[in-house]
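Quick log. Single chain, no ligands specified.
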Amino acid sequence: MTPSPAQYRFGLRLLLGLAPLAAAVIITGVLLLIVGAPPIDTYLKLIEGSFGSNTKIADTLVVWVSLALCSAGLLLTFTAGQWNIGVEGQITLGAIFATGAARVLWDQPGLVALPLIVAWGAVGGALWAILVGLLKTYGKVHEIFGGLGFNFISTALTIYLIFGPWQQKTGGTLSGTQIFPDALWLPTLPGLRVSVYSAIVALIVVVIIYLSLRGTVWGLQLKAVGKSLRGAYVLGIPTDRRLLSAYALCGACAGIAGAFLTVGVHHRLIPGISSGYGFLSILIVLLSGFRALWVLPIALFFAAVGIGSTALQLDLRLDSSLGGVLQAAIVLAFIFMQGVREKYIRAEG
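-> predicted structure:
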């Protein structure tokens, strides 16, 4: 039976949609063969390393929470046409503000202190992002340069605090600040690192952003700003305020992630607390096609590859950086196939 034109187009679109993943698997498979590693065993070890036990699942979900929060925030600035590269710094400032709040609330019960600590983390991330937005809107400094600059400043500030005013009683150390009292630890599942509360917050944030971009005037105006800043201004949209609101909310999401990393994972401020989650989130948003609900499974995939890659080094004597190669291959394949897809759609039109 000959397929109809509609069935043919659907099949081709489906093939183009799956092609990036297939291309990434083939590319990494070839690389594995070159280094003498069995591709099938490597992929199975990645899965086992991220989902092979309750502990590994919990570790994967810990990373997923940070990636989901940061990716959800980036959806706002990307929708507004802003390449917000400063999420790393916004995570770090969230962690710094959360640690500062924890020091003030050191002797308070967790039920009172933890919501305030997370809220201050959101404030810290939002303020750091707004600074980038102000440089963009009023100083005409490109957001990439502003964001990267503030990333370096946040890292330097973290080191200063750890080895200066917030150093441990025994002196400054790379292990971080004084560990928080148990009351200020975010409750986790017994014997595991993951907190149900942080996972629920991440889900709620993603859903709220999805609904905001899809069904509010503010979301529509944000999309208009992203399509054409000049055109949105001519239509009467307060473009500067919309841009700053996108930066503030994106920074708040990153700041919440930073707060969760302090009270739920490390229980202190440590150097490099952002762990590259901000940069990974950029890739996740690109792969999602700026669709909020797709952020959740893609972030889970990236978290699984990151956690599972440690098993490659332990079991197959492969460098754990192979996980990053897989992630990069998927992104590059997606970008290439996106161009092919757009060319096909234009040809069909």
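Residues 68-290 form one domain.
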